Amino acid sequence: MLDEAVRAAVAPLEPGYVDLLARVVESLAGDEQVRALWLAGSVGRGTADAGSDLDLVVTVTDVAGFADPDVWGVLDPMITTPIPGSPGCFAFTTRAGLRVDVVLETTDDVASSPYVHRVRVLDRDGLRPPTDTGGPAGPDVARMQAIVTEFLRQSAIFPAAVVAREDWLLGRVAVHNYALMLFDLLVESNQPLPAMGLKQWSSRLDEDQRALLRSLPAPTADRESVMPAMAAVRAAIRTHGRAALEGAGGVWPVEIDDAMAAYWRRHGL
Which pTM does this prediction carry? Predict the structure, then answer.
C-alpha cells in the first residue's frame, strides 16, 4: 500500500511508524473528502532520525468535517492536543508512544502552504506542492535584540525576587531561563541553518558553542549552587551573547547593561 519512496522517507523513524502510516492510508482511502495525504516536517525534508515524529498534511475538501479528533481513532491516541490557531489540527501521542501531528488544508490552500517540503503518499487530483521561493535568511537581528532586552529586564528581578527572598527554586529556574536565552542568541547568530527538526538542538550550534553551554553549571535549589551558576551564565551572555549580537549587526545596549550591573552591585552581588 505504501510505495518505496514513502517507506524510505519513514524508515529513519523508530519502529512502528510504517505500520501506523499504512493504517492511516487504509482508513482514508475510501473517504472522497480526502484529496491528498503528504508527509511533512523532518520526514518531508529528508532530515528525520529515530527521534523525529510523523507530520501528516491532509488535503481535504472541507476542514470542518475533520474538526473532531475522533476522526483519527485509527491512530489509537492516548493524548490529543489541539494545535493552536489551526482548527481540526492535532498533535497525537498513541498508545504505543508514537507521535503524530495532523495538519489539515483544503485544495485551495496547497499552493500557498508553508509546508513546502513534502512526500506524496496519496493524491487523487495530481496536486502540485507549493514552491519554495524564499532564499536563505540570515540572523533575525530584531529577535536577538529582543532576547537581550528581556535578559536585561530580568536582571532587575533576580536580586530582589530571588536573593532577598532566598527563593532558590526560583533562582534555579532563572539560571535555566538565562541559559535558554544564550542558546537562542547563538542559534540565531548561526542562521541560515540547514533544515532540521525542532528537537535537534545540538546540531544548531558549532562545537565551541556547544562546549560553552556544556560548561555552564546546572544549579540545585540552594544559595551555594545558584549564585555561582547565575554569575557564570550572566557572564556568558554579556560576553559570548554580546559578541553574537554584534556579529549579526546588532547593538549591545551598553547604557542599560551598565545600569543593571550597578543595580546588582548595590545589592552586594
Answer: 0.77
